[in-house]
Structure formats: C-alpha cells, structure tokens
Structures
1.
Amino acid sequence: MSDKEKLKRKTDAAIDALKSPRLRWVMGRSQVKMEIDEGKYRKAVDSIMQEENERHMISGALKEKGVLTVEELAELTGLQPDRIVQHIIALRRTGAIIEAGEKNNQYLYKLI
Amino acid sequence: MTKDVFEEEKAEEGFEPLIVAYCCNWCSYAGADLAGTSRFEYPTNIRIIRIMCTGRMDAALVLETLRMGADGVLIAGCHPGDCHYQKGNFIMEKRYDYIKKAVESGGIEPERVRLEWISASEGGKFAALVREMTEQIKELGPSPFRAVDNSKEGAGNE
C-alpha cells in the first residue's frame, strides 16, 4: 500500500471519527458549564478522539476488504495488534463487528 | 508526514495554492467585501464561502475540505465579544483546538488550517491575511489530496 493510500485511509478515518456521535457528544460538552476539571476534560476528549480515529481506521479497512484477521488489520492500519484486539473487543461489545470464520489459526472479523 | 512523502511535488515551481475561506456573514464576509470595494489587492488563491456564524461550522467540514483537495482552510469570524449570536465565535475557538488535533491525526499539517478574527471594517486586514496565508501554504507545498496536479497552471489563476 502506497504512502498516499495510507494517508487517505488515515484522513478518512479522522473525518468519520469527527462525525461519530461519541466524539460529537464530548466535544459539544465544552459549550456548557461543567463541574469537572478543564484539564481532565481535555485529556478525556483527546483519548476519545484517538480511540475513535483508530476504530474508524479498523472499520474502514473492514468495509473495504470485507473480512480480515488482526494481523491483516495491523498491516493495513499501521496500528499495533494488541491495540487492534482492544478495539475489536470494544466493537464486538457494541455489536459493530462479528467473527466470520478463521484463517491461519486466527479469527476473521467482519462489519455488521 | 506528508512533508516527506510529497517532497517532489513541493519542489515544483509555480505552485499556486487553493485556499477555502469560511467567512461569517456578519463580520468577516463584510470585511472581505470591504477589501474588494476598497480595491485592496490580494492573491486570487482564495475561495470564499459565506456561513452564518463560525459557531455553526461543523468540525468535520474542515477536514473534508482538505480531503477534497484544498491546500488550506481559513475560518474567519467576528472578534471575541462581537459575535452576532453572542457566543458563536467562542464555540468555534474551543472547537478549533479539536479541529487542529483531528487534522494532525488525519496526517495533514495543522498549519494548513487557520482561525482568524476579522471585523466588517477590516478590509485591509483581510487582504493582508490572504497574502500571508498564501505565502505560508506555498511554503508548505500542495495538498497530498489534490485530484489533479495543477501546480503549473495554478489553481488561483483560473
């Protein structure tokens, strides 16, 4: 995969992340008076933004390729496999992805 | 990241950047209008889109504009305290931090996006800002998302 394609994938994930309800909700909270510490709030938004970016990179790759293993996802997204597993657990919990068979002793995942 | 990847494209001479400016209806758009009626000269690299308020601007729109091939995005609103809708520009100011981070995480240089305050009477400031931003983007080089490499013909010289 060329650098240009990688960049496109990254930017598309960032756009999708900005459109995601989760990130919109926390970003919107800055408009109302809050009782929580500003520093803690910003840190939380940053971490949510990063999570959303990474999850959209994973779901973008799955949308494009259909079914993929963790190893393949790591190759396509440039993320660490352990980080991908964490996101897969979260995405499975929300029902966004499911297992779809096995390949080379690894589970395949697909979007619902 | 993009700096290293597209070094060759940047090296090409005569690159004319395409800057999309989102100007608020009440101050910045009037400021841009004043720049025109006052006959201040500024580069033709800018494309102005009028919006009612910067506070109404979607964060994803900035990234989408860059993704569609713009070399830079300018968001221009009323000075703090002068917003027609009381606090629209303050909302944008906070959102701008996240926009910058999102642009960076999307693999694009955050310097391509700028937030500025321009009042209806600051035609000269608008012209100077466009000149300055055009130079800044020229230094950064073309956006990696340019559909067609128009560095020779120049996007702003159509």
Note: Chain A has five helices and three strands.
2.
Amino acid sequence: MENLALLTIILPFVGAVWVGLVKNESLFPKLAVVFAALATVGALCVAQQWHSAAVAVLHYPLIRFGNTEIFGVTFDAVSTLIGFAVVGLGLLIVLYSNGYLTVKNKEHAHAPLPRFYAFLLVFIGAMAGVVYSSTLLGQLLFFEITGACSWALISYYQTPKAQSSAMKALIITHIGAIGLYLAAAFLFSKAGTFEITALERLDPASKTVVLFGVLFAAWGKSAQFPMQIWLPNAMEAPTPVSAYLHAASMVKVGVYIFARAVMSAGEVPEIVGEVGLIMAMLTLVYGFVMYLPQTDLKRLLAYSTITQLAYIFIGLSLFALGSKLALVAAVAYIFNHAFAKSLFFLVAGSLAYATGTRSMPRLQGVIQKMPLVGVGFGIAALAIAGVPPFNGFFSKFPLFAAGFELGKSQGWITAMMIIALMESVATFVWLLYKFGQCVLGKPSEDVVNAQPLTFSMNLVLVILMVMSVCSAFIAAYWLETPWLTQL
Amino acid sequence: MSTVNWLIAALSVYVIGAFVSLCFSRREQVSVNIAGVSGMIGGALGIAAVAPVLVSNETAFALFQTPFAFAPYSIRIDGLAAFMVCVISLLVIVTSLYSFAYVREYKGKGAGSMGFFMNLFIASMIALVTADNAFFFLVFFEMMSLASYFLVLTEQDENATNAGLLYFFIAHAGSVLIMIAFFIFYCYAGSFEFSAFRQTELSPALSFTVFILAFLGFGAKAGMIPLHGWLPKAHPAAPSHASALMSGVMVKIGIFGIIKVGIDLLGAENLWFGVIVLAFGAVSSVLGVLYALAEHDIKRLLAYHTVENVGIIMMGVGVGMIGIAVKNPVLAVVGLLGGLYHLLNHAVFKGLLFLGAGSIMYRLHTKDMDKMGGLSKLMPYTALTFLIGTMAISALPPFNGFVSEWFTYQSLFGLSQHGNIVLKIAGPAAIIMLALTGALAALCFVKVYGISFGGAPRSEVAANAREVPLPMVVAMALLAILCVLLGIVASVVTPIIAGISTALSGAESFALAENGIVVSDSAPYTALSMPMITIMLIAFIAVPFAYYAMTKGHRLADRAKGNPWACGYAYESDMAISAGGFTRPLRIMFKPLYTIRKTFDPVPLGQKAINGAIKGATEAEPFWEEKVTMPIARFIPWIADRIRWLQGGDFRVYCLYFVIALVALLAVAATM
Amino acid sequence: MIHLPAEVATSGGMFFLGIVQALILLLLAPLFSGISRFIRARIQSRRGAGILQDYRDIAKLMTRQNILPDNAGLVSKVMPYVLIGSVSVVAMSLPLFVLASPFGAGGDLITAIYLFALFRFFFSIAGLDSNSTFSGLGASREVTLGVLAEPILMLSLLVIALIAGSTNFGVMSAVLGTQTWSYPVATAVALIAAAFAVFIEMGKIPFDLAEAEQELQEGPLTEYSGPALALIKIGLSLKSMVVVAIVAAVLLPFGAAREYSLSAVVFGAVFFFLKLLIIYILACVFENTLARTRFMMAGHLTVVGFGISILAFMFYVIGM
C-alpha cells in the first residue's frame, strides 16, 4: 500500500517532466489531465485500501537511518480524506485550465504554455507528499516545493505586478518555513527522530516549542495574521491557480501540518490552544473588515479564504484545548471549504473568461446570460456563508458546538464564539449582498457581451456544485466510522 | 401505514415533485402543473399522516441514523406538530390549486423554477415541525428561509433584491440566536436530542437566557415588533400564493418555536416568560394594525396585518405560559387554545386575503388600491370570498376569527381574575389593546374592501377587469367555506385543539364544548353558541327582508342607475374618497405612534454605519502593506547598502579579512 | 358535562322570550326615534311632528322606489338587513325583562361588542360602495369614531364584568341586581363611563358625526331611498335603544323579574320600558344642550370618557 502512495506522489513529478518537454499545444494539456487523473485514482485506491484494512492508523517508514525515520507515509482517516480532496481537486483544476488558458480568454488572452501544467503537476505531487508524510522533515521538503511552485505559478503571466506578488508570496511563506525548520530540528534533538508521532513522548515545554514552530509555519502558509499580506496580492495568478493554490491546497498545507501536529501530540499544552485561538480570532475580524472595500471579486475571495482558514484554526485550537468534536469539525471544514472555495474561484474565473472583467460593479444580472455561473455563484456564496443544505453549515455547526461546550468551563471561549458567530452572520450578509448585486437584475453591458464557456469548464463547475452539497456527508461518514478509535 | 410512513411519503412527494418540476423548467406550464399536483398530493398525504394523532392524541416516534455521530435524525409527531402539519398541508393544497392558473402571470419571469422552491419550502417546513433533534431543526429552519428567499427574489428587481436581503439577514440572525440557545442546552444535556433537552434542568438565569435568545430568534421569524422590518418588504415581493404560505404558515413556525422552547423544552416555569410574550404580543397587535392603516399597497397592508395577528396569537400563548407558571390549568389550557385556534384561523383567512390580492393583481397588474375600485361587479366571486375574508379577519361573528378572539378575550379575562397585582393590571390592559386592535382592523378592512371592490373603477385597468380563472376561484372559495365552517362548528374544533393545549401544559382535561356551545372555564361563567348565533342572525336578517318583500307590490321596481348626489355639480369619479383620505383622521389622531416608526428606523443608521466601515476599511487596507511589509522589504537593501563598503573590490582587503579571522580563531582556541 | 350557571343556561321558554323581546324592541324603534325628534323640536321652540310620525314616514317610504347609484354592489343592497339583524341578536340576549339572559350563549359582552362591530362594518362599507363623496366621508368618520368609542365601552363594562366574575350580561345583571355592591365606587364610576360610551354609540350630538346632517347630507344614508332607507332608520334607532338597554337592563337591573312567572315577566317588562324611556329622554334632553364639534376634536372628548373608565378600573383594583 505504501507503494501506491509513493506512486501517487511521484507520478505527477514524472508527468511534469514529460509535459514540460512536449511542445504540441493541443497535446500537453490533455497529457496533464491524464497524469492528474492517474494520481486521483491512486489517492482513491489508497483511501479504499485503508478503509478496508479497518485499522485506525497505518504507518510505513520509507527512509530511515537506524532509529531515525527521515521519510515515511501515514494513512488515517484525516490523511486519506484530505489526500483525496487535494489530488482530486488538482485533476478538476487541470481540466478547467484546458478551457481557461487559451487565447479566447477575454481577460487574459494567453496561449497555454507547458510550464504551467508542469508546475501544476509538481504541485499536485507535492501536496500528496505533505498530506501522506509521517515526518516533519518530509512535510518540510514538500512545504518548500509547494512554495517554489507557487512562485512559478503566480508569476505565470510575467507582468511586473505578478512577479512582485510571486516574490512576496515566496518570501513570506519561506519566513514561515523557519518555524518548521526550528520545529524539526528541536524534535530531532529531543526525540532522536523526525516522526511526528514522537511529539507525544516529549515533555510539555519541548512540545510547546515544537508546536509553536509548526504553528508559525502554518500561519505563514495559510495567510493568517501576521503573515496574511501575500494572499490578496497573489490574485495576480491565473484563476485556476488561485482556485487550487489559494483555496484548495497550498493554504491548506498550513492547517494540515498544524492538525497533524496537534493530533499526534497527545496532551497538548494549553498555551498553544490559547495563542492559536486568539490569533485566529484576530485574523477573523481583520479579514472580515477587509471584505468591505473590495470591488475585485478575486480579492474578496482571497480575504474570504483568510477568514475561513481562521475558522479552521479556531477548530484546531479548540481541539488543542480539549474538545474532540472540534477536530472532526475542523477536518470536515478543510474538506468542505476546499470544494466550496474552488467553486467560488472558478466562478470568478468563468466570469473573467466570458466577460473580461472581475470587477463586481461591472458585473450584474449574470443569471440571465450565464445561468450555470449564476447558480454556481449562489451555491458557493451560501456554502461559504454556512447555510444548509450546503456543506459549510455542517462543519461550522459542530465547530461552534465544541466551542460552547468548552466555554462552559472557560467563559472567555464563549465570548470568542459569540464574536465568531457575529462575524459569520456579517459574512453571510455581505456575500448575499454581493450575490444580489452581481447575479440578479438586469444584465450589465459586460455581461450582455459575454461569450459561452467551454465544455470542460462547465463540467468542472457542475462537479464542484454537486460536491458543495455532498462533501459534508462524505466527510462526516469518513471521519466518524464507528470502529475508528478516537484520538 | 403508520403516521411516520405517511409523513415520509408526503415529504418524498414534495422533494421529488420539486426536482422533476425543475427538470422541465424550460416548459413552464408543465413545470407548474407538476409542482402544483405534487403540492396537492403531498398536502393530502400530510393530513392523512397527522389525522390519527390529532384525534387520538398519541405521539409517533421514529429514529434514523445519519453520517453525523452527534445528530441522528429523530422524528416526533405530537399534538402540536400534528396541528402544524395539518395547518400547513391545508394551506398547501389550496395554494397549489391556485397556482395552476396564477403562475401564468410569471411566464417568462421565472415560473419554471418557482415550483422547485415552493415544494422545497413546504417540505422543509413539514420536516422542521416534526424534527426532534436540534441539529436537524436548525438545518430545516435555514432551508425554509433559503427556499422562501428565492421565492421573494422572483421579480428580480431592485425592490425584490433588497427585500430578500433584509429578510434572509434577519432570518439568519434569528437562527443564529436559536443556535446559541440550543448550544447552551447542549452543554448541559450532552446531546442534541430534544428529549434530552426536556430532561435537562437549567439554572433560572440560564433558563431565562435560553428563552430570551429563542424568543428573539423565533420572534424575528414570526415578525413581531420590533423585528418585523422584513415582513412588509418580503411578503409583497413574493408571488401571491407564496405570500399566502409565508404569511399563513411560515410566521407560525416562529410561534411554534416559542411554544416548543418555552413550554415544551423549558417547561415555562418562570412567570416572566409568559408576561414578555404577552407584552410583545399586545404591542405588536396594536402597532401592526396601525401601520397597516397607513398603506395603500394592498399586499404591504396585508403583511402588516400579519404582524397584528401574530401579536394576537402571542397574547393567547403568553396567557397560556403564565397559566403554566402559576399552575392554573384553566388559564394554561384556554390561553393556548385561543392562541392555537387563532393560528389556524389566521392561516385560513390570511391565505384567502392574499389569494384575493393575487387575483386582483392577476387582472389589474397593480398593487395600488387607489387604482382599483368597482371590482365587486366585475369580479363577483373574488369579491364575495374577499368580503368573507375581511369579515373573518375583523373578527365578526359568525366567522372563525371571532371564535378564536373570543377565547383569547376569555383567557385574558381569566388572567385578570386569578392573579397577582401585575397580572390584574396586565390582563385588562391587554383586553383593551385587543379591543383597540379589533376596531382598527375593522376600520382597515372597511377601507380595503370599500376602496378595492366598492365604488367605481378608478383607472383603465380596473374598468377592464374580469373574473379570474376557475382554479383560482375554487381555491379562494374553499378557504372562504373554511372560514365559515371553522366559525360555525367551533364546538367540534375546540376539543381537538384543547387536547393539544392540555397535553402541552400538562393539565387535566376538562370539557370545553358540548352541543354546539363552547365555554372557557372548567366552571363556566359564560358560553358561546356559534350555530345558534348564525341561525338567529339569518333569521333576523330575514325578518326585515320579509317586510320588504311583502310590500313589493306597492312600489315601482328597484332601480340602480345614475350618479351619486354631488350637490348639484356634475359628478366625477375622483370626488370619491381615496384610501389615504379614508384613514387620514385616524392617522392624525395617532400621530405619535407613527413618528416612533421613523425615529427608531434602524435602516438609515445601518446605512451610515456600513458606509463608515467601508471608508475606514478602504483606508486601513494598505496599512499592512505600507507600514509593515514595505519598510521591512526596504530595510534589507538598506542594510545591504550600509555594509557594502566591506566588499570594496580590493583583493588585498579580502586577504586582510582572512588574516583577521585566522588570528581571532587562534586566539579563541588558545584561551579554550 | 358542562354545567352552565342559571343566568346563562337557555331553555325553550327563555329562548321564545328572547325572540319576543327582540321583536318588541324592533317594533318600538320608530317610536323612540319619534320621541327623540319630538324632544328636539320642543326644545328648539318648534311644535314638531307627533311622536308617531316615524311610523308614518316608514309606511310612506315603503311605497317609494328603491334607488341606488349604478356602481353600488351587493353590499349596499344587503346592508339594511344586516344592520337590523346584528342588533336584534344582541337585543335577544340582553336580560331586559328577567334577571337572566334569554339567549345565554349569545349574551356575552364580547359577542355583543363584536355584533355592534358587524353593524358598523356593514354601515361603513356600504358608504364606500356607493362611491358618493358624502357617504365615503361619513363611513370614514363612523369607523374612526368606533375606534375611539369601543375601548371606553369595553373597559367600563369590563370593570363590571370583573366585579361580577363573568362577561355574560345575565350574570352581570343578576349580581348587580340581587347582591349588595361589593365595589360601590368602582361600579358607580364604571356606570358613568358606560353611560358616556353609550351616549357616543347612540349617535347623539356631538357624536352624530357620521350622519352630520349639516355637513355630510346624512353620510352613508345619502344614497338610500324607499324601503332601504326606512329599514336603515329602523336599524339606527334600534341600535340606540339596544345600547341604552345595556345600561338600563344590565347596569341598573332594578325591577327585572327574578322568577319566571308571567306576572313577574310582565312587571319586569313594564319596569324596563320605563327605565328605557327615562334614560332615553334624559339623553335626548342632554343632547340638545350641546353644540356640534369639529370632527378632529372628537378625540379630545372621547379621551375624557376613557379616563373615567380607567378611573373606575383603578377603584376596582384598589378594592373600593
């Protein structure tokens, strides 16, 4: 089974090299789709094999020197679920890019280049690596690879603004990576191995150091306060890149490594949870306030990603403070948000492709001319805002339930939850307001002149819309199978 | 088939009907027909499901596992839930019948998707009242708001968009408050099941907090003052049969929630619960009808009347809760009886009035009463059923509105007799406010009927009106017949509803109706016989008519010709009084209450706050970039510049660096 | 089994009595409106028509043609009958001759007030239906006056009901008639307030605003003629009588029969009509000492009445 996982990780790298070398414009996009599909099948098989093995955690060390494990793979409910999500979304994004990255694109008419698909495939492979990795060193390796790929992909259009945004993203996430370097080194010095599960054996003070290191890296990668500035500017990237990196995968690296760390740490020192919660609340409020001036749809979505990730951090911090329900909520949130936010970004991309603009004042009455995109906008907005039957609610609810449960003994947590609930309602109102502005009413001039989308783009939108309803149930089923022992 | 199975069948019919009608959304008439038929079948199945529960008062349970470990899907159909399902199904059958013809009005403007949202709206309401788990309760509550939001958006103009935004915002904020209340329960109960909530004992302070949160949340849904702002905007924007459902049943979900949390889950042991409900109810009823008077848009007027009637229902429920708290079974039973009976009656006559308004709009394409007029000749069936509806809502005997208001009055009278000093004053105060409400409502509906249907047509469109298609007429007639029936056979309906209120309050049952007579106490001091009053009314109407008929031979035939007297001037149509003019004296007399509305209107304040926030955020956004990132980014090259002199380019200086470093290291090694 | 109190339970004989008393009042309605005309004429130093003039008027009107404007609908045609019908049902259930309600299940205070509301409703709607300027204005005034007057009537009678322990007229009259007044001051003040409300409901100056002859050409009556007008006149007069009857029979139940023998009932009837006549004449004389007022000032007057009834309620709460 570990070979299957290795294959899932390595295959996209191989594909990247191959795709990078092909020059035929009509061939390499489809080739990229094939490799991404193969990787997705691999992730699915890994998940299915783990499920049929009926054991909570499966761990296979791959490279070790004596007692020191350098690199290995871990399969449990969380890693198989998230692994499937990131790789599957990678496939959808590659498929979407086939239609989007062409000269017909009204916003960025640009002939497709092989390096785009190559870097994207490398990214998919690196993501699978981060998710399945069982050591801090492995996580660190793929963490930095994703950083490099993001630099390449954000600056794809090669304009000065894109290049400076890409540089900013790279540098800030790399600064975050210092935390992970420190954590890995400290863990090795105290436990003699890089395995994340070794955290359990450390004394509380060392645990705190390692966890704070991971937390710092997570903040950097997930664009939390104080390292949030790179994400809004990274919107210079082509929209499929934004959808994948900045909704589904790269920003999820941060929350994922933090989730892994607190899951494997046994008794987590309270200070970690408290700091995590307070910083997440700050990010939440700041992110919301920054919604208000935005007229560019993608920048709005960037800030929305920042706030949604803050929610996930809240959930993980609540787990660190003692609530098991919060972990289930946070992981489900990761899964659900990936689909919903990708849908939202791809809707923005479709609007840009068809009309040439993503400025919201210029986009009105979308539902009349492009009903699928309009419906997608609505579904995505409602899913992010947390309205059932869409997936967002089913992860927000247990998160708040966990918070209130903890708040019974610690009043300040209840206060935090109330602030978060207020922000949730405010986000809901704002997104609904934008929905009313952009989707309803009489079509504006830009919308009237919109061109139709390609089949691949429509297909991906539909798949994501379906997932925005179903993913909550999939996540709940996967994370709460009865024989799964609680951590 | 058991109750639960019928219920699931009904839900399935609604959901399947919704999706099938969506598939045919391009062929609009087919889509409408499918949605209408599935609505009617679902409604019939719903009534079949709950009829045994209403008659025998036995509760039905079911439990289904879901992927969510913390929330199995549990169903509980007790008397209250059965009653709500019955009311919903009744109105759904009628509005589905109405929609066959009415939706033609929306051809090309979204008629194809209307059936989808309607059916999902209805299904979520029915699932909501029967859910016994807090999680699923909230899921269906939000889905109900979501589906009706899209119905409000049907016209897709700016008005509808703003109305929808305000509506969904308040509904969502309300559901968040309810969610917090349920979370507090969850902390102490350990699970989300309502059965666990019922067993949990909360401290008085927590119990009060939970009640207030739930009261505000459900009250926002019910449209009580001061959380009513969305009602007059949202209900007129939706298509009329959707407005009928929203006014007729959706706001009742709010009342249902207050009863569920206050009485069923919390036990209503605190006297203040009932007093708060009573107070808000009384204020809502008076202010609601007062604001209705100022309207000349017929649907906005009806929306404000919903606020008024919700207030009246809340008064009855409030008395019931007070009765439970002071352990007076008569008060508890009769108060809740009045509230629930009025809930049913209001659904029927408000549905009828909205359908009537829809019929007017179908022919005239206007909501402005000042453009109507003379319709009683041109649309006779609509006029007759609308007249019955206005008489019912003004609580005139022998219609249903009178019976439920009678019970409410009697329960308030009972409150004034059995209580401490607060209740002794609160009871008569509420009675006077109810009387005032009744008089104002009569005024308002005289205006509505008189201006819309009476007199002469005031515009071209009114003059060209004709009767509406058969399905719409039949739907309105059905509701009108129900208005009459629910009034006359009050003695049959009363025991059923009394059974529900007895079960809710945990009291011993006592007889409230016999042989056509209803009473309001276990030791009755007064009685009401609707059948006899109806017969005597008809008899005493017949007496003068007989006299008139007897003398017919002595005079010329009746004549209806010519203009009204205008003091010798040539009569013109616009000499007649207008809608605004009719109510002007009253509005001047009650001016302070109208200015409250303007002073406390939160919208301008909210606008200013939002604009200020946007401006602030716009100025703050570049802050991080300019003040933190850029200085750091500029700092590095600055440092680099400062130490550049170290690399002057002279190779000999670099050799000197080597020597210095070597010497330093040797010195360190020597001292170690 | 429901056990109704004796004053509320209806037997066949009592029911028949109720119908009889309603018909008697119906027949006497023109007499009383004639008395009102007579008193007004004499006070205004005119001879006036005789007391029986209204009978003659009605007889003549029944031979005239029934004319309505062409846009009048069903409501206008039905209005005169509904007026008489609704008030007759109230008349039937009042404890006029005996200390019990002949039609107990219709003799509730709330029922009576809402039957009067039915009266007012149809009166006003018909005013709007004919599309005449004057009748529309009259209708507007009628319903506005109803809003101002109903709370006074409701509150004053409610105080009596609270004292008697029941909202049924039969019980109220029995308690006031047979037992010593346990809240004497409250009862007395409530009586005054009720009299005030009744004065308004009778449509006496300054409250005849709906039919203000000098201003509105008889308001909603403008467009009626012939038999319909006759019936409306009967209906309006019947209403004044019934409203006074509430005060005379319920609040001042002296002389009403306690047992149900024929002689007692006849005696009670005579006493009742005496009381009715005296109060009616007093009201008419009082009316003619007052001047008409502006409609918008009516609110200032009714507020006084409402204040008196609140005073009565306060006395009840204190226990006096």
Note: The beta strands of chain C are 67-68.
